[in-house]
Amino acid sequence: MLWKLLKAERMKLKRSPVWIAFLIIPVLPAVLGTANFLANQGILQMKWDSLWTQHTLFTDYFFLPIMLGVYCGYLMRLEHLNHNWNRMFSMPVPRGMIFAAKFLTASFMLFVSEVWICVLFVLAGRYAGLTQPPWNRIFLWCLFGTLGGMVMTAVQTVLSMLVKSFALPVGVALGGGLSGLFFLAKDLGHIWPYSLMAYGMNSNAPQQLSPGGYLQFALICVFYIAVSLGAGSFLAGRRDV
Known about the structure:
With about 240 residues, the chain is an all-alpha fold. About 75% of the residues lie in helices and about 0% in strands. The relative contact order is 0.15.
């Protein structure tokens, strides 16, 4: 049943303008980050890690939160219009499963965005004259960035379900992304939902976390995702959306 709901969500996204955001928005921080990297060689080192800090500075706190707000808002806006929630809830499936399908669809879009961001990062590094990309670290940054981003996705999916306005959840996502910078500066990035994506991507100071650090990070993300899914399923089943 969940698979059928996921297929239905995929069909709704066909020829959707949201893919324009997917293609264009990640290019902007890649260009800005690369330009900043090349313009500050007196401060930064000519290394992949330094380039990554510049890319993720713009990506994790500004552009990617906006993208997640757009993704989740668009998925829910389709149901807010023309009383589509009534049609969705009339189907013989648990309401929580409908919410889970929305979350998983947005999470898949996040994963694709992360891959596209990493591709742009490698292309930018090649343009800047760097060689031998650190593929192992890039894979970990993308993987744990996706996991941290799924926390933000889960929270935004709940918010977009409850709020009919499209702009408000996007604004909250941007504000949350900016707040992540504050919590990371206070060494609380590993527990604040809106900073987990940046923390997972090691955006401030790329480094190799210990296996225990990755495990702790994963457990925190799973906890937040489980709580958000539980809350979303409960609210979907208890109130008129």
